[in-house]
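Homework help thread (please don't just give me the answer)

Our assignment gives two proteins as sequence + structure token strings and asks us to describe the second one. The first is just a warm-up. Here they are:
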Amino acid sequence: QVQLVESGGGLVQPGGSLRLSCAASGFTFSSYVIRWYRQAAGKERELVAGITSSTSSFTKYADSVKGRFTISRDNAKNTVYLQMNSLKPEDTAVYYCSAHRLSNDYWGQGTQVTVSS
């Protein structure tokens, strides 16, 4: 059974940090491109960051998080991470991880991140 399970969300003050994790099972994780998306209340889902499946692990970020967020993967643990630093209130959203390869798209259930004082 394919599963993507996000964790690590929570409430953090502006300027703080969180590390999200996404644990995968049920498919060949290392062969999939992994992306983090987020959806704020009343807004469309947006791509935050992505990482390729190759060992070189090319990464790409939305302009709004460039320099603050870092995506990484550990294929031995079937896990992808999103390190989020210098968080801003506008980063508040439900964060989802997703796995993509050819016609396959898998999604997690999401984890809430709230940035507020």
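The one we have to describe:
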Amino acid sequence: QVELVESGGGPVTAGDSLRLSCAGSGGTFSQHAVAWFRQVPGQEREFVAGVSRGGTKTTVAESVEGRFTVSREYAKSTVYLQMDSLKPEDTGVYYCAAVPVLPGKIVVNVKEYQYWGQGTQVTVSS
């Protein structure tokens, strides 16, 4: 069993930066791929960024490429989402999710994720 807790969200102005954190607990968190998703009311949860088990591979959605970076720090069992040059369309609830995988694999399909955090709200005003 893995538990995930997100933090770092809040209200910001367009052009600002935020860093979200996803703290994982449970003995096997290091054996999971982790991703960030975001959701706005009335829309499906959208993949934002993901990191592989082992942290050797990362990927981000085209809509945030060049602005968002995902990384993981094993010593702290934490995955980060660095968000720069934020835009109003980045507003939403950001969730981290984890799924056990083989080393080096990134998972982008929301349906494949087994564990979810409670979410953290990011609001970007123009």
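TA reply:
I won't write it for you, but here's a hint about the kind of observation we're looking for: The radius of gyration is 13 Å.
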